[in-house]
C-alpha cells in the first residue's frame, strides 16, 4: 500500500469498522494526542462511524494552541524592539496574546514575517545583516531537528544576527502530566505519527506499563486511524495494554537516530510553559549554553508585562481533554476562524477550528 488513495479505500474502511464494532464491547475513552489527527478524524467523520461505546477526545497536540500566552507576549515584545525582524509560522501571528498579537504588532509597525521553515528565517538573516532576525520556534520533536539544523548552519556560515526563541515542547512528558492530573480517564491513546517518526515508539512504553493504558501510533489517513483504533480496542478488550505501531510505513520503534542526534546537539531538556497546564518540568527544549549566542531568550531584554488569558476562552480545558469546543460559550458566537478569541480557533490543527469546520459531521 504505497499511495494515499489506498489509505482512503472505503471498502477497506468498512471492513475495519466492522471488525472494530464486532470486538469492541467495553466502554473505551480514547485520546488523540496530535492536532493533525484531530483534523483528520473530523474531516473524515470518523467519530460518528465508531461504535457508541468508543468516545474520542482531543488532546494537547497542536503546537500553536499549547503555546502559553506568556510566551506569546515575549514574542510580541521582541517584535517591538528596534531593528528586529520576527519570523514565524503563519498561524502563530494571529493568536491573541495578553494585550496584542504578532499581527497587530505588525500593523503597528513591527517587522513580522511569515516563513515556512527555519531555513527561510536564516535566509532573511543572511539578507539583512544590519537587523536581528528572531525565529519563533514552536512545535514538537517533529520540527525541532530542522530548527537545530538552522542554528548549526548559522554557526557554520558565521551568521551573527540569527536567533531562535525556543518554545519547543516534547510529547511524552506532557502525556504523563495529563495522566497524572487524573482529569480524564483514558483507556487508550492514539500516539502522534510525525513526532513518533523522530522519537520512535519506545518513549511511550511507560504509558502501557505504569498507567495500563493502550497505545497505538497512527498515521494521518482514515485507514491509519481506524487501524490504530482497532489496535487500541484489541488491547483494551484483552486487558493487555502495550505500544503498537499502526503506522509502520512512517515509524520505527527506535525512531530516527540522525534527527535525534541533531536535536540533542543543540537543545537540552528543560521546563516548558503549556497553555492550560502551566509549567511542566522536562517537557521543553532549551538551547544549550554552547549555542547561547543564537538564543533570543538570552540575548534580548524585554518586558512582556503581566499575562492575561482571553476572557471566556476555555482552550486550556479543551487541551487537557476535559471540555469540548461546543461547551465554550463563545464558540460560533463571538469566536470564529475570522475573529478567533483563542488559539484553538486560530490554528488549522486546533480543536475549535476542527469543530467549527466539520462539527456537524461529528457532534
Ligand atoms: Fe477559546 Fe474560541 Fe475555542 Fe472558546 S471557541 S475555547 S474562545 S478558541
Which secondary structure elements does this structure contain, and how are they paired or packed?
Blueprint lengths: L9 H14 L4 E7 H9 L2 H4 L4 E8 L1 H4 L2 H11 L4 E5 L13 H6 L3 E4 L3 H10 L4 E6 L6 H13 L5 E5 L4 H11 L6 E4 L1 H7 L5 H7 L2 E4 L4 H17 L4 E3 L11 H10 E8 L3 E10 L8 H4 L15 H5 L23 H4 L4 H12 L1
Parallel strand pairs: 1-2, 1-7, 3-4, 3-5, 5-6, 7-8, 8-9
Antiparallel strand pairs: 10-11
The structure holds iron/sulfur cluster.
Dominant shape? globular
Looking at CATH, which topology of the domain at 66-170 and 255-299 would you report? Rossmann fold
Helix content: 40-55%
Mean pLDDT: 94
| Structural Rg | 21 Å
Identify the CATH homologous superfamily of the domain at 66-170 and 255-299: HypD, alpha/beta domain 2
Number of strands: 11
Which consecutive residue ranges, at least 5 long each, have pLDDT under 50? none
The DSSP helix count reads 17
Plain-language structure description:
The protein is α/β, with parallel strands linked by helices and 363 residues long. The protein has a domain at 66-170 and 255-299: 3-Layer(aba) Sandwich (Rossmann fold). 41% of the residues lie in helices and 18% in strands. The protein has a 5-stranded parallel sheet. It has a 4-stranded parallel sheet with strand order 4-3-5-6, sandwiched between helices. The protein has a two-stranded antiparallel sheet with strand order 10-11. Helix 6 (102-107) links the parallel strand 3 (84-88) and strand 4 (111-114). The two termini are 32 Å apart. Iron/sulfur cluster binds at residues 312-315, 318, 325, 328, 330-331, 335, 340-342, 344-345, 352.
Amino acid at each position: 500500500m504505497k499511495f494515499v488513495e489506498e489509505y482512503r479505500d472505503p471498502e477497506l474502511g468498512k471492513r475495519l469498522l466492522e471488525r472494530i464494532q464486532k470486538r469492541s464491547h467495553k466502554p473505551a475513552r480514547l485520546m488523540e494526542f496530535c492536532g493533525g489527527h484531530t483534523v483528520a478524524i473530523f474531516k473524515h467523520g470518523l467519530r460518528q462511524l465508531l461504535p457508541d461505546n468508543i468516545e474520542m477526545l482531543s488532546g494537547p497536540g497542536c503546537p500553536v494552541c499549547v503555546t502559553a500566552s506568556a510566551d506569546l507576549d515575549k514574542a510580541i515584545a521582541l517584535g517591538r524592539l528596534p531593528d528586529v525582524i520576527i519570523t514565524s509560522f503563519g498561524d502563530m501571528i494571529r493568536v491573541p496574546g495578553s494585550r496584542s498579537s504578532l499581527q497587530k504588532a505588525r500593523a503597528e509597525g513591527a517587522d513580522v514575517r511569515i516563513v515556512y521553515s527555519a531555513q527561510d528565517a536564516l535566509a532573511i538573516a543572511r539578507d539583512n545583516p544590519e537587523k536581528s532576525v528572531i525565529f519563533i520556534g514552536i512545535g514538537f520533536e517533529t520540527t525541532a531537528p530542522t530548527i537545530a539544523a538552522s542554528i548549526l548552519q548559522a554557526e557554520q556560515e558565521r551568521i551573527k544576527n540569527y536567533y531562535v526563541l525556543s518554545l519547543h515542547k516534547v510529547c511524552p512528558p506532557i502525556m504523563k502530566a495529563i495522566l497524572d492530573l487524573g482529569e480524564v480517564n483514558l483507556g487508550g491513546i492514539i500516539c502522534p505519527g510525525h513526532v513518533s517518526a523522530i522519537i520512535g515508539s519506545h518513549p511511550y512504553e511507560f504509558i502501557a506499563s505504569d498507567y495500563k493504558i493502550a497505545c497505538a501510533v497512527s498515521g494521518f489517513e482514515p485507514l491509519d486511524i481506524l487501524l490504530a483504533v482497532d489496535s487500541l480496542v484489541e488491547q483494551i478488550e484483552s486487558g493487555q495494554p502495550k505500544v503498537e505501531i499502526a503506522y509502520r510505513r512512517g515509524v520505527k520503534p527506535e525512531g530516527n537516530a540522525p534527527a535525534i542526534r541533531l536535536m540533542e546537539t543543540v537543545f537540552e531538556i528543560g521546563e516548558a510553559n503549556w497553555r492550560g497546564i502551566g509549567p511542566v518540568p522536562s517537557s521543553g527544549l532549551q538551547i544549550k549554553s554552547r549555542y547561547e549566542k543564537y538564543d533570543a531568550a538570552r540575548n534580548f531584554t524585554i518586558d512582556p508585562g503581566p499575562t492575561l488569558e482571553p476572557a471566556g476562552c476555555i482552550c486550556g480545558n479543551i487541551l487537557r481533554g476535559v471540555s469540548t469546543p461546543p461547551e465554550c460559550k463563545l464558540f460560533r458566537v463571538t469566536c470564529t476562524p475570522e475573529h478567533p478569541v483563542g488559539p484553538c480557533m486560530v490554528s488549522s490543527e486546533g480543536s475549535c477550528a476542527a469543530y467549527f469546520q466539520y462539527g456537524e459531521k461529528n457532534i
